[in-house]
Design goal:
By secondary structure, the protein is α+β, with helices and mostly antiparallel strands. The protein folds into two domains: 112 residues, Rossmann fold, CATH 3.40.50.10330; 167 residues, Tumour Suppressor Smad4 (Sandwich). Strands 5, 6, 7, 8, 9, 10, 11, 12, 13 and 14 form a ten-stranded antiparallel β-sheet that branches. The protein has a four-stranded parallel β-sheet with strand order 2-1-3-4, with helices on both faces. Helix 2 packs parallel to helix 3. The radius of gyration is 19 Å and the shape is elongated. The two termini are 27 Å apart. The model has no long low-confidence stretch (mean pLDDT 86).
């Protein structure tokens, strides 16, 4: 008769202040939930989680948990896609966006691990994105070009650690006043629309930090992504766009164009900063996206 299952925890050591204490608590929580003690696997500067997750899969892991920020979650999720082995999200980062959208605890290791171990597995969608001729990335929550990527790239790590997501807003006033870039957007092969944008986002789910539900109807398991092109002018325009976003009046207005989609192609008039689940990935002039329906099992 086989013994209790041992979850693998892929963790970012930069997010863990006392590894020994965390290991003790992890063992206790696993034992209380009827699991074996966790196998701890720290990320490195060369492997942000994908390689060690792939090894856990080949070793026959029953569950792989990601302990860290959105980047760690994305790396582990990408390696688990289409394997049938579930992901457990133990959010300890700035945004913890997938944990928020799954209704899981975040920034609370004990509660997060207990929720995962006592939860049940279900499939969710992943997004796939390729910038120019670069590699295809997976994303669990959001990818984009423009202002969002500029703010992510400009956030100072020490401020992120101290302030959390508001650190991204520092220095935003100058960026809001910039004119933007030309865009051509094709959704599901339909007739393209063109214009001038300041930001183009593609969401797998809609809840963002600060309690902003950018796309209330978006679900991680609805089989589609949500493309949003923001075209405000200046700070006043951004104020209007923000008001329309938080009051849910987005559809059919020139400031925010919103379309559900399975595939999409965005072309910009010059190279624009890009990001994937909050991680800057350089600048590009094209963004190709597609939904990978039901690709990832999660325990929640």
């Amino acid at each position: 008769m086989s013994g209790p299952r041992n979850p693998v925890i892929v963790y970012n050591p930069l997010k863990v202040s006392d590894p020994a204490k965390l290991a003790r608590r992890g063992a206790e929580i696993c034992r209380e939930a009827g699991w074996g003690g966790p196998v701890w696997s720290p990320t490195t500067s060369e492997d942000h989680g994908a390689g060690m997750t792939a090894r856990a899969v080949s070793d026959g892991a029953d569950l792989v948990c990601a302990l860290g920020g959105d980047g760690t979650v994305r790396e582990v999720a990408g390696a688990l896609a289409r394997t049938g082995i579930p992901l457990g999200v133990l959010g300890l980062g700035t945004g913890n966006l997938l944990a928020r959208n799954l209704g899981l605890p975040h920034n609370d290791f004990d509660a997060s691990l207990a929720a995962v171990l006592n939860g049940s597995a279900r499939p969710i969608d992943l997004g796939r994105v390729r910038f120019d001729d670069g590699p295809e990335y997976c994303f669990t929550v959001i990818t984009g070009m423009g202002l969002d990527a500029e703010l992510m790239a400009g956030a100072e790590p020490r401020l992120k650690a101290r302030l959390g997501w508001p650190a991204y807003l520092l220095g935003a006033t100058r960026a809001l006043a910039q004119r933007g870039f030309g865009t051509r957007v094709v959704v599901d092969g339909r007739r393209p629309f063109s214009g001038r944008s300041r930001m183009v986002l593609v969401c797998n789910c809609g809840l963002l930090p600060g309690g902003i539900d950018l796309v209330p109807e978006a679900r991680v398991d609805d089989g589609e992504l949500d493309m949003m092109a923001f075209s405000p002018r200046g700070v006043a325009g951004w104020a209007a766009a923000t008001l329309r976003a938080v009051t849910l009046h987005r559809r059919g207005h020139r400031i925010i164009r919103h379309s559900g989609c399975h595939t999409g192609l965005v072309t910009t008039s010059f190279p624009v900063p890009a990001e994937v689940d909050g991680d800057p990935v350089g600048s590009a002039t094209t963004m190709r996206i597609r939904v990978d329906q039901g690709a990832l099992m999660v325990r929640a």
